[in-house]
Amino acid sequence: MSNPKNLVDYDVRVRDRNVKSGLLRKEDVDRYVAALPDVAPLAQPVDVTQPGTGQAPVEEAPARTEPSA
Asked: What residue spans of 1-69 are helical by DSSP H?
């Protein structure tokens, strides 16, 4: 089926099964994924407390670069 009736068919959790069963073609999945917009620039950080501790998450330390020898 080249045009699934439901976008759930493309869900990453089931699409491999759908390709294996013939519900989707690999080419259709590749075309669908390539057409998705890049929304990464719209992402915003979310502050949440860690479950069970009531503390804010630990900030990741910036990556250290080793000096060249």
From this structure: 15-21, 26-35
Helix, strand, or coil here: 49? coil
pTM listed for this prediction? 0.55
pLDDT tens per residue, range 32-58: 999 999 999 999 988 777 777 766 666
Measured between alpha carbons, how far is 14 from 22 in angstroms, rounded to an integer? 12
CB neighbours (10 Å) of residue 14? 14
Query: Residue 13 and residue 10: Cα distance in Å, rounded?
Result: 8
Which is more confident, 21 or 65?
21
Q: Of the candidates 31, 32, 37, 26, which has an alpha carbon nearest to the alpha carbon of residue 6?
A: 32
In the chain, where the domains are located: 7-37
